[in-house]
Model the fold of this input.
Amino acid sequence: MKKFLLASAFAAISSGLLAQMSPELATTPPDHPYLTSTATAAPFAATITADDMRSHLSVLASDEYEGRETGEEGQRKAADFIAAHFEKLGLPKIGNDGTYFQKIAFTAESWDNGQIELTINGESYRHLSDFVSFPSANSNRERFATEEVVFLGYGIDDPKYSDYDGRNVKDKTILIYMDEPVDNNGNSWLTGTPELSAWSTDWRRKLEVAHQYGVATVLLIDADIKKTVGEARKTLLSSEMRMGEGGNPEGRYANNMFISSTLAKEIVGKKMKKFVKLRDGIKKSGKPAHMDLPCRLSMVHKKHKRQLLGSNVLGYLEGSDPLYKHEVVVVSAHYDHLGKKGPAIYHGADDNGSGSSTVMDIAQAFVEAKKAGNGPRRSILFLLVSGEEKGLLGSEYYSEHPLFPLENTVANVNVDMVGRTDPKHDGKPNYIYVIGSNRLSTELHDINEAANEAYAQLDLDYTYNAKNDPNRFYYRSDHYNFAKKGIPSIFYFSGTHKDYHQPSDTVDKIMFDKMEKIGRLIFYTTWELANREKRIKVNVKED
Done:
C-alpha cells in the first residue's frame, strides 16, 4: 500500500509539472504507436540543461587538459573528471580493479623517426602532399622495387563481380580505383541500383582481399587526394594507434598507398589511351579486365612505435525490472581529441567535448529518475571512450571485450559533435544529423522520429545517412563498432565547421541551448529504448 501511495503521489507531482512545462516537455500522446513509456519522463528531461553542459565542457576543453590526446596526461585528467562525475552520481565501479575505467593498451605508430618513401620512374614524391599512407594499415618493409604495375580495376572480389578471377597477382603491385564499377545509367554492377556497396566505402576490405591473393602492394587511385591528405594530416602529424601490439596484425593488409590521379597517369604513361578504353569498358560491360603497365617504382614503409595506455570510462545504471535488467542500452561518446602540436592546444570543445558533456548530463537525468522510483527497466551503460581520433579504438576495444554480452545489448546511442552548426545550416541551428537509425532497425528510427515530434521538434537531417554518402560518416564514429556487430545504432551529429580539428574549436563557440535540446531528444529516445515492453528488433539486413 505504501508503495502504491508513493507512486500515486509521484504521478500527481509529475502531472502538475508537465502541465506547467513548455510544449517540448509535454506528455506523449497516449495513442502514439512508437512511444509507450515516456509520459512520466519530462521532469527528468528538464534536468538536462545548458548550464550543466557548459560546466562540464569548460573543464574538458580547458587548457589544463591539453586536448585530451589518448595516452597523454590530458586524456587521463579528462578520464578522472568523468569518473568523479559518475562517482558523485553514485554509480558503481564496474571497471578494472574496482575503478570506473576499462584500461586499454595501445601502440602508437608514426612515420616520424621512421621512413616513408615513394619513387616513380626515378622521381621522388612527398608523403602528405603527393600521396598518403597510414601506418596502421601497413607492415614494416625495407625498400621494395618493381618494374611493373598491374591495373586491376577496382580490386573487388565478390560473387557478383571479381577483379581477381583468373589473375595471378602474387607478389605484384596493383593499381586500383577506390570505388566500384557503375554503368551508364548510374547503377552499380554489384547492387543493381544507384546505391553503392560496401566495397566503395571500406577500403581496408580491398586491402584484406589483396593480401589474401598475395599482392605485394596496392596503389589506390584517390579522386579527391587533397581531401584525404587534409584529413590524414591531422592524424598522421602526431601518430596513429592500434590496440595491443599494433601495426598491421599478422599482415592483415597488403602494403598500400593512396595516390592522386596525376601519379596514376605517371604510372600508366604511354598506355593512357588503352587504359582509358579498358576502364570505360569495365563500366559499360560490368566485366573485369586488367592490363600490365611497365613502370619503375620503389617505396619504403618503416614505422616508429611506442606503447601507451588509455581507458574507457564506464557509468553503469542497473535496470529496475528483474525481467529486463540483463539487457543494456549503451549511450556513448568519445572524450579524446588531438592533443597538442607544439605550443598549440587542440581543445576539441565540439569534437567531442560536446558529446561527452551531453552524455554526462543524460546520465545525471537517469540517476534522478531512479532516485524518484522511476528508473529505467533495462540497464544503461554510459560509455565514454578514448582512442576515437586514432581509429575508433576505444569503442572497438569495448565491442571486442564487452562488460555485458553483446547479445544482451539492445542498442547503441552515440553522440559525437552536437554543439555547433555547419555551413549548410548557418543561422538555422534547430537541426541535428541522424545517422544509422534505420540501417539495422526501423523501430529505432521510428522511436527517434516520434520522440522528436513529441518533445524536441528539431529538423532531423538524414543527408549523411545515405549509403552513398561520400563523407562516409556512418563508418567514422564509435557507433559503427556496435553496428558491425549487428546492434541497432543511432549517431547524433551536427556536422563539421571551420574549426573542426583546429585549435580554435573552443568553448566560447559552443551553442549550449542547441545542445540542451539535442540532449533532451537523446534522453527521450534512450528512455523509450530502456523502458518499452518489447526490445527493438533487428529487421533490416545491412549490405
Q: What stands out?
A: The domain at 39-92+318-531 is CATH 3.40.630.10 (Aminopeptidase). DSSP finds 13 helices and 19 strands in the chain. The chain has two domains: 39-92+318-531, 108-305. Residues 1-30 have pLDDT under 50 and may be disordered.
